[in-house]
Amino acid sequence: MKTAKQNKMGFGFSGCDGALLQHISDQGSAALKNIVCGLLILGLIFWLSGGVSACCDVGNGTCYTCGDTIYASCTLNADLTSAGDCFTVGADGITIDGNGHSITGNTTGDGIETEGDKDGVTIKNFKIYNFSTGIYLGGCGSDDNQITNNDVSLNLDGIIITDVECGSDNNTVIYNKITNNTNNGVYFNQGAYNNNLTENLICSNGLDVNDSYAANLGDENTCNTTYNWNDTSATGEGCLYRCVCECPADGWVNISAPYDCCDGAQACTCQERENRDYYCDSYLVCQYNVIGNDTVRSGCVGCDDGVDCTDDACVDGVCAYTADDGNCPSDGWVNIGAPYGCCSGIQKCTCQERENRDHYCDPELGCRYDAVGTDTLRSGCVGCDDGIECTDDACVDGTCKYTSHCERKRRPDCPECEDIGMVIRPEPILEEPPVEEEEEPEEDEPEEEEPEEEEPEEEPEKEELKELAIIVPEDITEGEPFTVTVRDKDGNPVGNANVDYNGVVRQTDANGKVQFTAAKGTKTIKTSKQGYKDGSATATSSEVEEEVVEEEEKVVEKKKEEEGGFNWIYVIGIIILVLILLFILMRRRREG
Predict the structure, then answer these.
(1) Same domain, 66 and 206
(2) Pick from 242, 272, 297: which residue ends a domain?
(3) Would you give the DSSP letter of residue 564?
(4) Nearest Cα to 234, choosing from 218, 257, 253, 248?
């Protein structure tokens, strides 16, 4: 009979009575003796525990390995191999727990066997491979034992319960997987009575269930081939369930949850898959081989926010849009509006309004710009000079104007006036013409009074012009834009009115508004439009009171000149009329 190894080192320890401890005791230190004794025991425990290998561990220092007879409940701590019998049960009422580990033989001996009459033993959680018999309950009357949750496969016989002499009764075989054994899966031999076989998978054996004398029972088993066996719930002979292997159809199977991914510049939903080739293994368990992998992309959406200046990309399955100023036009001066005629002093020019633009990319609105400066570019300037001394040369609204002042002369000292036929010469000396008696004055002579047709009173009345009002902000900062508003006397906006500020001429919009860049000091703003009286105002961007006064004086003087010019013409007209009348009266007097 095989027994467990009680002390692998081959010596005993009979207390703290050694020579060393006796010497310590002789020195009279009992406390020191106890300390040394404790240290020796502790060291021995570590020494012994360090030498324990793979075995069925009882837990008190006893550890059974293949070839041993087990007398106490134990738990297997590792896989074992055996060249014959592995474990022999040597006591009643113990539990041998395989703990999910395997014992593997060489086709000789038994994996686990009982020795003589052993009752109330539990054998569980083992993987038993390649023995002559996986589990053997025999001897003289092994009763009330339980074999549960074991994998007994690839042996000559799986489980044998037998006892020719005394009988093996009331044993339970439950929840086991018994497959691919050469002869019998479960064999109730002669002397096995009232044993229970329940809920076991018994497939792919030479004979799945062999009940020699039909003296045992059970139910809900899975098997195909039997002898003298039928489950209680089965109709006819055999197990309630058949050994089948049902596998899904071969093909692609999703192996991950959907996740966000990119396909170039597209945001997609991805799904990992594998191509499976299914088959049934020797245990009739469906298995598969992976023969391919791929990634399926779906729901792809192009990353395009419709904004031209953003860089569109897909990052980690999410569209990302990055503003890039480099996608906008270059910064610099840009013409605004069409070229127009303008003046520079008494020069007629072509003007072009410009602004300096700093472009940037707005991620929602696209390319935008800030105006960081404005100016007026003058080109093609030509001096307004007609070469005639008696004309006033000026540039008005981009057009050269020449105004003759010959009518103001009182002496013929302007040759140019003579060229244009506008010289006023001194009054001629009136001489009485000789009287011609043979000719009588005709009654129709008054027809010679043609100048009367040129009387000013007969000129058509001019249409009354509407007045223009110019509204200028009070606070104007040099170099900053400001808005001029033009309205009529009723407060209505006047569009398409010409507004001249500091030599820059622009037209008002439909709301009567126009914008300029403020120049330093006080500048006169003039406005004109056909059907309206010309209007003027001043705009001051800094404290230059003297310039304002001078500008107002110039305006007053100009008005006086305009009024004086009108009165002077009126007086000249009256004088001419009086002279004509005097001439006619004197002539009649001479003739009479």
Answers:
(1) yes
(2) 242
(3) H
(4) 218
- Candidates 161, 211, 201; CA nearest to 181 is 201
**Total structural domains in the chain?**
4
CB atoms within 10 A of CB 527: 25
pLDDT in tens, 99-120: 999 999 999 999 999 988 899 9
pLDDT in tens, 172-210: 999 999 999 999 999 999 889 999 999 999 999 999 999
Q: What is the pLDDT of residues 332-362, one digit of tens each?
A: 999 999 999 999 888 899 999 999 999 999 9
In which band, very low, low, confident or very high, does the pLDDT at 88 lie, cut at 50, 70 and 90? very high
The tokens describing 258, both together, are 């959907």
Distances (CA, A) of 32 to 19, 20, 42, 43, 514: 14, 12, 15, 17, 111
410 in a structural domain? no
| 123 and 237 co-located in one domain | yes
Amino acid at 6: Q
Please report whether residue 445 resides in a domain: no
Q: Is the pTM of this model over 0.90?
A: no
Residues 176 and 289 in one domain: no
Per the CB < 8 A criterion, the answer to whether 499 and 527 are in contact is yes
The answer as to whether 535 is a domain residue is yes
Same domain flag for 124 and 102: yes
